[in-house]
Write a structure and sequence with these properties.
By secondary structure, the chain is an all-alpha fold. The protein has 20 helices and two strands. Helix 7 packs antiparallel against helix 9, helix 9 runs antiparallel to helix 19 and helix 12 packs across helix 19. The longest helix is centred in the middle third of the chain and has 27 residues. Bound molecules: amidocarboxymethyldethia coenzyme *A. This is citrate synthase (unknown stereospecificity).
Length: about 425
């Protein structure tokens, strides 16, 4: 058995008694209560999901397996001559909580290389879709189309014991992950680069090969590594992660579950916000023409957006109450690699002005930037200017976290998800003390 799978099997065996003990001996212990506002308001803050893969502190931001973003980036092995770690190392880390050695990562790199080829019927499907279809729709359709490959679905149909579920789930997740960057690159080049495609480089790591197949030179490979790791996981309650978990809880396989999660990510309040940021910036530039943007003009444009009833994209968050460390990590990259980029300067200017504007506006609970306020600008700098595509990049990264999560869901035997709904009358009755 491959080393990662062996280690994962050991971690699962160690973890299972903890979950079983909690359920058996402490199942009645309360960890929160639900208010009417939470029931109507999207279950905000209701504690009813369990994951050990990442935890989001409102003031500190995300920790992957207990490590902050800078700690994670520093700990994981990197390809030779590169600034950012292998995404394969991050996968190992998210799954097992352990930092792999260089040799261990290389085993995963080789395994993914061997599973990378996209089936021809996926290419045929993508080519049959109208070219102006949104790339997220294409990406989701490609993932769903591969459901026929599911090892889990086959093994389930043959009859499999519950404690074995994680193993074919892990196989499906690995097969799926290995193909995602090539699928994304195929969509990109078919739609935007004259349908001219670049074959994979058999020697490159996952993100390095993505940069290669997209047709972008160094340091775009490091941009891709950074981007995919930063976007991988944000605990379980966000729309994409929760959708994947929910769909997989019906024992739908990884293909069904990931495709559904990608559809959730495609919403403008979630992953699509990164393309909305670019759209906002372009509109701003169109309005102010060649003028150098100033704090005053940015403030005016932000107020205009708010007055017209729209949100300021890239700002606010359901859980975070400070600047997203994923924003900060990208800002550090940009400060180092593209300090004079005019759009980056504008993003910095918006960062200076928008929190104050949002505070004065008085609605958003969090006036600080989230990950999406920055990501499009780095892509733009390196030549990826078709912003419709930005959420696909988010989706490739997000897959790493959510697929690690559903592997563990099956390992720990989490049941089908089924929260309870109530009627408005019931809420009115409770509210009036009936
Ligand atoms: N601009 C203007 N208004 C905002 C705002 C923003 N950036 N963020 C929140 N608000 C408003 C909400 O629309 C809501 O108004 P309402 O009472 O009229 O409905 C009010 O402030 C309270 O909202 P909240 O509790 O602070 O936020 P939430 O948990 O309901 O929503 C989020 C969180 C991210 C959807 C919201 O902040 C938003 O729409 N931001 C802009 C879009 C964005 O950047 N999304 C990406 C988030 C990160 C990600 O998932 N990729």
């Amino acid at each position: 058995m491959a080393k990662l799978k062996e280690l994962l099997a050991q971690k699962i065996a160690e973890h299972r008694p903890r979950t079983q003990k909690l359920l058996k001996e402490h199942g009645d212990v309360k960890i929160g209560e639900v208010t009417i506002a939470q029931a109507i308001g999207g279950a905000r803050g209701v504690r009813c999901l369990v994951t050990d893969i990442s935890y989001l502190d409102p003031f500190e931001g995300i920790r992957f397996r207990g490590k902050t973003i800078p700690e994670t980036l520093a700990a994981l092995p990197k390809p030779e001559g590169c600034e950012y770690p292998f995404v394969e190392a991050h996968w190992w880390f998210l799954l097992t909580g352990e930092v792999p050695t260089y040799d261990e990562v290389m085993e995963v790199v080789k395994d993914w290389q061997a599973r990378r080829t996209i089936p021809q019927y996926v290419i045929d499907l993508l080519r049959a879709m109208p070219r102006d279809t949104h790339p997220m729709t294409m990406f989701s359709a490609a993932i769903l189309a591969m459901q026929r490959e599911s090892v889990f679905a086959k093994r389930y149909a043959q009859g499999m014991k519950k404690d074995e579920y994680w193993e074919p789930m892990f196989e499906d997740c690995t097969n799926l992950l290995a193909k995602l960057p090539s699928i994304a690159a195929y969509i990109y080049r078919m739609k935007y680069k004259g349908d001219e495609h670049i074959p994979p480089d058999p020697n490159l790591d996952w993100a390095g090969n993505f940069a290669h197949q997209m047709g972008f030179a160094k340091p775009y490979d490091d941009v891709a590594r950074m981007y995919f790791i930063l976007h991988s996981d944000h605990e379980s309650g966000n729309v994409s992660a929760h959708t994947v978990h929910l769909v997989a809880s019906a024992l739908s396989d990884a293909y069904y579950a990931l495709s559904a999660g990608i559809n959730g990510l495609a919403g403008p309040l979630h992953g699509l916000a990164n393309q909305e940021v670019l759209r906002w910036i372009q509109n701003f530039q169109a309005k102010f023409g060649g003028q150098e943007p100033t704090e005053e003009t940015v403030r005016e444009a932000l107020w205009e957006t708010l007055r017209s009833g729209q949100v300021i994209p890239g700002y606010g968050h359901a859980v975070l109450r400070k600047t997203d460390p994923r924003f900060t990590a990208q800002m550090e990259f940009a400060d180092k690699h593209m300090p004079d980029d005019p759009l980056f300067k504008l993003v910095k200017l918006i960062y200076k002005v928008a929190p104050q504007v949002l505070m004065e506006h008085g609605k958003a609970k969090n006036p600080w930037p989230n990950v999406d306020a920055h990501s499009g600008v780095i892509q733009w700098h390196y030549g990826l200017r078709e912003w419709d595509f930005y959420t696909v990049l988010f989706g490739v990264g997000r897959a790493v976290g959510v697929l690690a999560n559903i592997t563990w869901d099956r390992a720990l035997g989490y049941p089908i998800e089924r929260p309870k709904s109530v009627t408005t009358q019931m809420l009115e009755d409770v509210a009036s003390g009936k």
